[in-house]
Amino acid sequence: MKREPFVLKLKPGMKAEYKRRHDEIWPEMLTVLEHQGSSNYSIWAIDDFLFGYREIVHEPCLTKEDMDTIARWNEYMKDCYEPFADANDMQLMYSDIGIVREDKSLIRHRVFCTHLKPGCAAEYKRRHDELAASRGGVVSEGPESNFTIWRAKDYIFGYCELVKSFDHEETAEEHAATVAWETRGLEIMDWVTDDVDWLTGEKHVHPELMFTFH
User: Fold this and answer.
1) pLDDT (tens digit, 9 = 90+) per residue, 31-83?
2) Which residues contact 10 (CB under 8 A, 6 or more apart)?
3) Which of 28, 68, 87, 102 has a CA 20 to 30 Å removed from the CA of 93?
4) Structural domains in the chain (count)
5) What is the domain extent for residue 192?
6) 105: Cβ–Cβ under 8 A, 6 or more apart, which residues?
7) How confident is the model at residue 12 (pLDDT cuts 50, 70, 90)?
8) pLDDT tens-digit profile of 75-132?
9) CA angle 51, 18, 68 (to 5 degrees)
10) 116 has which bridge partners?
11) How far apart are alpha carbons 145 and 39 in whole angstroms?
12) What integer pLDDT is reported at residue 177 of this predicted model?
């Protein structure tokens, strides 16, 4: 299975219209998504970004009618956004796939975005490579699963499925480790989403689900 991200930039004042059009997506576009092999597909608004994530579960089998539909949909949507980064432009910075729950009622989504400070991309990757190596090749059952982090230019976008059965009140030791990790992260990046507002006292946006397709 292939995992694909993308990032778009919303044009000013077009978020509600983008959401409305996806709420009323054409049936023939849903057929296109099926023919593309798309699964577990979601699009999230973060400030003026649109962060998309999907899984490709089979080889695309697009018809001429599908290609015509794609062209018409792109023409219909082009007043809502501008390109920012497609899958080929985005660097995988970290992954911890673990055990993926097919039943999405068992998970909570965590989607996030940060902005790297100048010259800090390599350091971000190094720290996350160390984190991956510390697992020693062991497949984790949770709480994080299907977790990927991608770099688009100087922005970081993360998609994660948190397994609800692991929910618990953080111990003092776990909390101290979280504070240490997040405080260290602030050396190399600024948050766009609200993930560490509890630590910094700042106010950032929470990702908003704009579209989903399973």
Assistant:
1) 999 999 999 999 999 999 999 999 999 999 999 999 999 999 999 999 999 99
2) 18, 45, 48, 49, 50, 80, 81
3) 102
4) 2
5) 88-205
6) none
7) very high
8) 999 999 999 999 999 999 999 999 999 999 999 999 999 999 999 999 999 999 999 9
9) 90
10) 189
11) 16
12) 96
Last residue of a domain, one of 41, 60, 87: 87
Q: Which two tokens stand for residue 196?
A: 């560490």
- Catalytically annotated residue among 22, 35, 109, 128: 22
Q: Which of 58, 87, 116 is the last residue of a domain?
A: 87
Report yes or no on 214 lying in a domain: no
The verdict on whether 128 is a catalytic residue reads: no
CATH number for position 21: 3.30.70.100
Q: How far is CA 98 from CA 1, 142, 145, in A?
A: 14, 7, 5
Residue 202 DSSP code:
-
Report yes or no on 54 lying in a domain: yes
Share of the chain above pLDDT 90, in %: 98
